[in-house]
């Protein structure tokens, strides 16, 4: 169960959201030998993570040096095979729109939505928001 993937199985994973949940997922995925990159919209969060490698609200968790951290969404999403969305629900629509511009979907991306809650204006689930913004084709993967 702790086997690491060989290079053919290794994924390039973009985690969108540098909070406690995003950082926890980054550590777990890094331990599985995937290439992990974290993006956060807040430059202060990115600066803190780059400086300390420790999330502010999770002082016992340290991000490995192999986890890349950036405020540049295009850089983080470039070449990704998996996009993990872990942003707060209030920012999901904005993040999905920015992602659509930064990394046009070529039909190969897998999206994993780890955000709970509903859109405060439309009452849509996060999956519905992502489908609306990125298009129905993402449903087929």
Précis, in short:
This protein has helices spanning about 20-30, 45-50, 75, 90-100, 125-135, and strands at about 10-15, 35-40, 70, 80-85, 110-115. With about 140 residues, the chain is of the alpha/beta class. Helix 4 (about 90-100) runs parallel beside helix 5.
Give a structural overview:
It is a single chain. With about 140 residues, this protein is of the alpha/beta class. It has one domain (about 10-140): 3-Layer(aba) Sandwich (Rossmann fold), CATH 3.40.50.720. It has helices spanning about 20-30, 45-50, 75, 90-100, 125-135, and strands spanning about 10-15, 35-40, 70, 80-85, 110-115. It has a five-stranded parallel sheet. Strand 2, helix 2 (about 45-50) and strand 3 form a beta-alpha-beta unit. The longest helix is centred in the N-terminal third of the chain and has 12 residues, at about 20-30. It is globular and about 35 Å long. It starts with 11 loop residues before the first strand and ends in a 7-residue tail after the last helix. The model has no long low-confidence stretch (mean pLDDT about 95).
Q: What structural class should be given to the helix and strand makeup?
A: alpha/beta
Which regions have little confidence, pLDDT < 50, spanning 5+ residues?
Answer: none
Strand content: 5-15%
| Named CATH architecture | 3-Layer(aba) Sandwich
Question: What is the assigned CATH homologous superfamily?
Answer: NAD(P)-binding Rossmann-like Domain
**Series of H and E elements:** EHEHEHEHEH
Report, as a whole number of angstroms, the end-to-end distance. 25 Å
- What's the number of extended β-strand segments? 5
Any idea what the shape is? globular
Q: Helix count? A: 5
User: What is the domain total for the residues?
Assistant: 1
Task: Give the integer mean of the pLDDT values.
Answer: 94
Largest sheet: 5 strands, parallel
CATH third-tier fold name: Rossmann fold
